Amino acid sequence: METMKFKTNINCGACLKRVTPSLDGTNGIKHWEVDLDNPDKILTVDSEGASADDITNAIKKVGFEIEPA
Fold first, then answer.
1. How buried is 10 (Cβ within 10 angstroms: 0-12 exposed, 13-18 middle, 19+ buried)?
2. What pLDDT, on a 0 to 100 scale, did the predictor assign at position 31?
3. E strands in the chain
4. Which of 2, 31, 32, 48 has the most C-beta neighbours closer than 10 Å?
5. Which of 25, 7, 4, 21 is nearest to 64 (CA)?
6. Three-state SS for 55?
7. Please, is 41 exposed, middle or buried when counting C-beta atoms within 10 Å of its C-beta (0-12, 13-18, 19+)?
8. Radius of gyration in angstroms for the set of CA atoms belonging to the chain, rounded to a whole number
9. Cα–chain-centroid distance for residue 33?
10. How would residue 50 be classed by pLDDT, with cut points 50, 70 and 90?
11. Sequence ranges of the domains in the chain
């Protein structure tokens, strides 16, 4: 399993609700969470096959910004 971290602009519970279906529906993501207390809103993903591009695309398709942390 690989752990990846990304800076995002996911900053509230409503934002989490918007990204949840996209991330949960991405094959190869074992677990994910966003640290809303961190100023960079760090998304941590435990991947079992999902690439950084897969995760980036899942976030961008619901309208959020994402970049490697």
1. buried
2. 97
3. 2-8, 29-35, 42-47, 66-68
4. 32
5. 7
6. helix
7. buried
8. 11
9. 7
10. very high
11. 2-68
Query: What per-residue confidence (pLDDT) applies to 11?
Result: 95
Query: Phi/psi of residue 64, each to 5°?
Result: -110, 160
Beta-carbon-side half-sphere exposure of residue 7 (alpha carbons within 13 Å): 5
- The model's pTM is 0.94
Fold observed for domain 2-68: Alpha-Beta Plaits (3.30.70)
Q: What is the arithmetic mean of pLDDT over 27-54?
A: 97
d(CA 64, CA 48): 23
User: What would the pLDDT profile of 13-37 be if each residue is shown by its tens digit?
Assistant: 999 999 999 999 999 999 999 999 9
3-state SS, residue 59: helix
